[in-house]
Amino acid sequence: MKNAPTLAATRLRCAPRGRFSSWGGPAMKKPALSPARWSISACIAAAACLHAPAFAADAWPSRPIRVVVPYAPGNTGDITLRFAQLQLEKKFGVRVLIDNKSGASGNIGADEVVRAAPDGYTFLLGATNNFVTNQYLFKNMRFDPVKDLVPVSLLSNGPSVLVVNGSSDIRTLSDLTAEAKKNPGKLNFGSPGNGTPPHLAAELYSQLAGVQLTHVPYRGSPPAVQALMAGEIQLYVTALSSVAGHVASGRLRAIAVADKERLPILPAVPTTAEQGLPGLITGNWWGLAAPVGTDPQVIEKFSAALREVLKDPAVRKQYTDIGVAPIGSTPAEFASRIKEEAQAWKAVIEKANIQPE
Fold first, then answer.
1. Residue 264, preceding bond cis, omega within 30 degrees?
2. From CA 126, how far away is CA 150, in angstroms rounded?
């Protein structure tokens, strides 16, 4: 324990002056301590220091917990955290405050968490790019997501859905691939910007299917969706939550789910594996992390509480109703996923030579 006060120093600081001595009793001549007794006192003080972190973790949380979401309100991570927020507050007995800090593809909010005191009261709810891909896209990032953040738990995953215009002749993944091979570079796909998850997901499809597509970046998801409906682009790969209403109305058509299982909300739409591209598994997941140095016991307590909340049937239904899977994982499982995906996406980014805007 850094700069921990000794037992004797604590008594000196707590004793009132004049009426009481440094030993906490009436003023009197202090007997000299033998070396043996000084040794015993030192051991007691050291033991107190060793047990201090455990006591701190046992008392956690004693005040509101702040979770920084490095994007504007209304994103999938923001929404799914709010689904769990009330139950987490009941478990902890304190408020869980959601603080939206957007900018620079999430780097501004993430950097604020990295620089926060590791006291167990500031956490990051980041997306895939915050933990995995931004480090390969932004050359001057001020932090290392692996070294400077401690994984707590995965919260949710929104599997990517490949979407085309509702009036298009493209009805399956095979149709899309055949059309792209027939017209190399003439099919456009949209994204909310260079290096965003929809951009990377479409590039992964292009590489696995062996087709050439043209990327058209927009300033956000809504303009890209509008462009797809207007026929300016022919493909958009995104979480269902971004296009659910338009798919339900028939203005857009979902042709594949880039996951191992079909989405309960889209039972008739087959997966990419069912359509011959088992390697096309992609989505935008969200996870909680803390500044490095945060007490491991606090990390585990938060992780365990979140895992329990995400088992609640009512909470799970809120997730699946918007096409998102609730996850809940141990810190070790989350760390393993970050490591595995980092290498895979690094290869995709380098092959496509993707640069941030």
1. no
2. 12
Contact by Cβ (8 Å): 259, 159: yes
**CA 350 – CA 344 distance, rounded (Å):** 10
Round to whole Å and give the CA distance between 96 and 94: 7
The string of pLDDT tens digits covering residues 211-232 is 999 999 998 889 999 999 999 9
Q: Which residue has the tokens 């931004």?
A: 134
The length of the chain is 357
d(CA 188, CA 228): 9
| CA gap 355, 112 in Å, rounded | 24
Q: Quote the CA–CA distance of 234 and 188 in Å, as a whole number.
A: 5
The two structure tokens encoding residue 5: 């006060």
Give Rg (Cα) of the chain. 27
Cα 49 to Cα 312: distance, rounded to the nearest angstrom: 39
How far is residue 126's CA from residue 78's CA, in Å, rounded to a whole number? 10
Closest CA to 236 of 309, 311, 314, 168: 168
Q: pLDDT per residue over 163-199, tens digit each?
A: 999 999 999 999 999 999 999 999 999 999 899 999 9
**How remote is the C-alpha of 23 from its chain's centroid?**
51
- Longest CA pairwise span in the chain (Å): 99
Low-confidence stretches of the chain (pLDDT beneath 50): 1-55
Q: What tokens appear for 317 in the block?
A: 């239904």
Q: Which residue in the block uniquely carries the two structure tokens 């591209």?
A: 277
Amino acid at 213: L
- DSSP single-letter state for residue 186: T
Tokens (6 digits) for 226: 């509008």
Per the CB < 8 A criterion, the answer to whether 22 and 11 are in contact is yes
